[in-house]
Amino acid sequence: MPTRFSKNRKKRGHVSAGHGRVGKHRSHPGGRGNAGGQHHHRIMMDKYHPGYFGKVGMRHFRIVKNRKFCPTINVDKIIGAAGEGYYEAAKNGGGKAPIIDLVSLGYFKLLGNGQIDVPLIVKAKYFSKLAEKKIVAAGGACVLVA
């Protein structure tokens, strides 16, 4: 931007350049950044950022995220997740049910929402009671994988 367009050009010749004679334009009069959040800027922090300071909850030392990692999928979604051809193979299998390995697809637990009408052999780490009941009722089987 050329100098002639800057706002400061209008203030040339006026001693304090719009910052007043008494207060003076000093570098960081209130402190830098979030300084004074618990002191001289407390009203602003309490008003606009409640709950910014302090702690909540319990600490968990040496937390291992893997133990809680358990992606889930419902019964009605497994054929879509498995890919093309599984439904036809299950329907026209002639007593041979296709095997769907959920762990290789990125799911650990099978839940029981939805319906299934073809026999499937499903491999997973965990099954809910309802999911297992629906798969067995359709003529399939649930295989636990470590």
Quick recap of the structure?
21% of the residues lie in helices and 13% in strands. It contains five helices and six strands, in the order αβααβαβββαβ. The radius of gyration is 33 Å and the shape is elongated.
Structure description:
This protein is α/β, with parallel strands linked by helices and 146 residues long. The chain is built from 5 helices and 6 strands. Strands 1-3-5 form a 3-stranded parallel beta sheet. Strands 2-4-6 form a 3-stranded parallel beta sheet. The radius of gyration is 33 Å and the shape is elongated. The model has no long low-confidence stretch (mean pLDDT 94).
- Coarse shape: elongated
Cα end-to-end separation: 65 Å
Quaternary: single chain
- Mean pLDDT, rounded to whole units? 94
The parts where pLDDT drops under 50 for at least 5 residues are: none
Helix content: 10-25%
Topology, number of strands: 6
What would you report as the Rg, rounded to the nearest angstrom? 33 Å
Helix run count: 5
Largest sheet: 3 strands, parallel
Strand order of the largest sheet: 1-3-5
Helix/strand order: HEHHEHEEEHE
* Strand percentage: 5-15%
| Class inferred from helices and paired strands | alpha/beta
